[in-house]
């Protein structure tokens, strides 16, 4: 490991810690080979382009098992989720036309070509869009990167809309709430996808075995999910190599069955690609046709994953996989299902397994069940990742997060979240065993997440991309109207299962808001009652206060001053360690912070007192292991050396003395001190603060301590209690 010094400002020293391997991982670059001078530059460029294409194809294959599990398994439950009553040939043609154009417009145009370009340093998803807006336009509540680093600023000249958000606190909070809602809906997706996918796949047992009851299918589905959740603690690395082959087999086998069904049942099915079948469908069916949209919207289930999982792959690989495998597979599979149902109009309640030929029924059943498990695993893993990011950004109570793979940083597991998901998934199956009820709930999640993405993408187009107004209006009108109609249809099913994701999302949103509000109130109190370095100097000058041997990392949430817990600590302990490093963990609205920007040392005029800022993005692993102390000491030593005058001999002696003091303090013992604060909720508090802060205190008392979450050994931890007046 090699250390370098970089100067972001006149008062800051940023220490570059260059690791052996690049931590970025946002995309795969071709392996560099020694230059062969026998090749011309054109030949070398062709060789490099060939490597890039090969890497993109390999990544595209891997996306089948991670990104598209939910989307490509949707034929299992789309038709069974529709409340069809005596459907006719024209009805089925209209339904297929709606599904085709939904897949084309939302899947191909919106996600595969527009949303996928709105990444935040390679990360995707609704919160990444919010992060992108905050970083470029500075309209967020959390600190953005440019506020603390003197790097190239991303802030752009403001548009009229950007100035509106900057001046309106209500608008900024509403924007944050929308991003939170999208996050909560994704967690709800992690509950509903395993339930509906596994239940729909296992339902294939009932056709060949009529004696198998619906209750038995539900029980078997619950057992499969329980086993799946119990295996989460071992990680997916050992079995992930099976995911892509399973999903590739499913992706190729279902369209083959679809082609067989088209040839044997209704060869002219593709005439339904004409949009006029959609108009005729709504003209004939009216309100009942509008209500059927709650089922057809499920054909686009999982398309958000193309955008949300962007950080694990790259744009080209996801586009290749979707446009050349997933999209054609779904178009042909739904065409085959529809062709069968036109000739057998009353088989829609089992619209998938009925159209499977008897000769390949059991192989397809095995593939379908395996694909449903893989799709469930993809959403469970995504839920763990979202929870981890929320914890890092201080939007969610601290839970245990375990990295199950040494090679894949994004592969995480949370025991508490895992068991809560397991209970909710099993409860959804056992209580709402009817696929239509779960489908109604699923439709709410799918349509709302799509609508939130459309709104945030429109803001990105206006405030960041500066897209021409005509194109912005065209995009917004087409997709907002289309998705708005879907949302209005699924809301009519609120009492028939649609309330499930609302209940889950409301509880999660209340938890996130309560936690965030409590943390913000504590930060406001600390800023109001902060201790300045002048006040610290006065405290240390008192005769009763001793400087004891050792190295102390004193954690504080504020940079411009010191936490009031410090005064509380010194007044009661009557001591402070000889070397004290006031450490601030700064979470930035970027996915990952580069190693050379990770540790920032700030100046202090007091001997043995230093300030250190450790910066993390929401996709970084926040774990202060043993090498962290070595890095900080090395950074401090370089900071001391840099700020001594080379012409002053006494300055050289002071530098040597301070460096020796660092080493002596380190060998004397390292301790990490963090505040354990609580609110004192008095009679003068308003009703809102009493409710929200009391709820926050309940969560704070039952969540994990911040120090164990950092990976610090218990014997090195000290927590100082203090009451904050609300």
Structure description:
This protein has 726 residues and is of the alpha/beta class. It has 24 helices and 10 strands. The chain has an 8-stranded mixed sheet, with helices on both faces. It has a two-stranded antiparallel sheet with strand order 3-4. The protein is elongated, with a radius of gyration of 29 Å. The model is unreliable at 1-37 and 142-155 (pLDDT under 50). Belongs to the HAK/KUP transporter (TC 2.A.72.3) family.
The coarse overall form would be elongated
Q: Distance between the terminal alpha carbons, to the nearest Å? A: 46 Å
Largest sheet, if any? Answer: 8 strands, mixed
Determine the strand fraction and express it as a percent band. Answer: 5-15%
Give the overall pLDDT as a whole number. Answer: 80
Oligomer: single chain
User: How much helical structure, as a percent, in the residues?
Assistant: 55-70%
Number of helices: 24
What Rg is obtained from the alpha carbons, in whole angstroms?
Answer: 29 Å
Give the number of DSSP strands.
10
Summing up helix and strand content along with how strands pair, one would put the structural category as: alpha/beta
Strand order of the biggest β-sheet: 1-2-7-8-6-5-9-10
**Poorly predicted spans:** 1-37, 142-155
């Amino acid at each position: 490991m090699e250390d370098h010094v970089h100067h972001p400002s006149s008062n800051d020293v940023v220490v570059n810690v260059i690791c052996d391997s690049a931590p970025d991982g946002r995309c795969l670059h071709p392996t560099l080979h020694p230059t062969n001078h026998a090749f011309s530059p054109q030949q070398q460029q062709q060789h490099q382009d060939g490597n890039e294409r090969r890497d993109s194809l390999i990544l595209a294959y891997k996306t089948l098992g991670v990104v598209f599990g939910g989307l490509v398994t949707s034929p299992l439950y789309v038709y069974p989720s529709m409340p069809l009553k005596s459907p006719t040939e024209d009805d089925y043609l209209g339904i297929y036309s709606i599904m085709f154009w939904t897949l084309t417009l939302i899947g191909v145009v919106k996600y595969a070509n527009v949303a996928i370009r709105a990444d935040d340093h390679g990360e995707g998803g609704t919160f990444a869009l919010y992060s992108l807006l905050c970083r470029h336009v500075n309209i967020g509540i959390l600190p953005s990167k440019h506020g603390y680093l003197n790097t190239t600023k991303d802030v752009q000249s403001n548009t009229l809309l950007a100035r509106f958000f900057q001046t309106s606190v209500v608008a900024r909070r509403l924007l944050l709430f929308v991003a939170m809602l999208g996050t909560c809906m994704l967690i709800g997706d992690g509950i509903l996808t395993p339930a509906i996918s596994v239940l729909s796949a296992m339902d294939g047992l009932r056709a060949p075995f009529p004696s198998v009851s619906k209750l038995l299918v539900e029980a078997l589905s619950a057992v499969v999910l329980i086993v799946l959740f119990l295996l989460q603690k071992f990680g997916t690395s050992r079995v992930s190599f099976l995911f892509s082959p399973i999903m590739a087999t499913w992706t190729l086998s279902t369209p083959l069955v679809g082609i067989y069904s088209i040839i044997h049942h209704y060869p002219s099915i593709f005439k339904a690609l004409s949009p006029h079948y959609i108009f005729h469908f709504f003209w004939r069916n009216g309100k009942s046709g509008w209500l059927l949209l709650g089922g057809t919207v499920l054909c686009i289930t999982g398309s958000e994953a193309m955008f949300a999982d962007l950080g694990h792959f790259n744009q080209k690989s996801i586009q290749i996989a979707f446009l050349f495998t997933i999209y054609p597979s779904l178009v042909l599979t739904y065409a085959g299902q529809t062709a069968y149902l036109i000739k057998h109009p009353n088989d829609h309640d089992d619209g998938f397994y009925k159209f499977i030929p008897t000769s390949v029924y059991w192989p397809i059943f095995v593939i379908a069940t395996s694909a449903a498990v893989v799709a469930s695993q993809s959403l469970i893993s995504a839920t763990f990742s979202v929870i981890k990011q929320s914890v890092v950004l201080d939007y969610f109570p601290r839970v245990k997060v375990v990295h199950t793979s040494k090679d894949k940083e994004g592969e995480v597991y949370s025991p508490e979240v895992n068991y809560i998901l397991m209970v909710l998934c099993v409860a959804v199956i056992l209580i709402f065993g009817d696929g239509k009820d779960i489908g109604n709930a699923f439709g709410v999640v799918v349509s709302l997440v799509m609508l939130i993405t459309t709104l945030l993408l429109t803001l990105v187009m206006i405030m960041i991309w500066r897209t021409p107004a005509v194109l912005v209006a065209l995009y917004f009108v087409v997709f907002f109207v289309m998705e708005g109609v879907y949302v209005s249809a699924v809301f009519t099913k609120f009492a028939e299962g649609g309330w499930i994701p609302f209940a889950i999302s409301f509880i999660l949103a209340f938890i996130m808001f309560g936690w965030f509000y409590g943390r913000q109130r504590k930060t406001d109190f600390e800023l109001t009652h902060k201790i300045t370095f002048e006040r610290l100097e006065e405290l240390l000058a008192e005769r009763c206060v001793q400087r004891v041997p050792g190295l102390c990392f004193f954690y504080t949430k504020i940079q411009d001053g010191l936490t009031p817990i410090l005064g509380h600590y010194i007044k009661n302990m009557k001591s402070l360690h000889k070397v004290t490093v006031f450490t601030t963990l700064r979470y930035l609205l970027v996915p990952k912070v580069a190693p050379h920007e990770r540790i920032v040392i700030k100046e202090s005029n007091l001997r043995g007192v230093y300030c250190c800022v450790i910066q993390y993005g929401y996709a970084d692993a926040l774990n202060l292991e043993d090498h962290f102390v070595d890095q900080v000491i090395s950074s401090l030593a370089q900071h001391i050396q840099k700020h001594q005058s080379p012409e002053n001999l006494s300055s050289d002696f002071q530098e040597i003395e301070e460096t020796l003091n660092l080493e002596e303090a380190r060998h004397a013992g390292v301790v990490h001190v963090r505040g354990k604060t609580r609110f004192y909720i008095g009679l003068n508090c308003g009703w809102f603060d009493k409710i929200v802060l009391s709820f926050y205190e309940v969560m704070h008392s039952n969540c994990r301590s911040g120090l164990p979450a950092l990976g610090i050994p218990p014997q090195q931890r000290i927590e100082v209690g203090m009451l904050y007046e609300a």
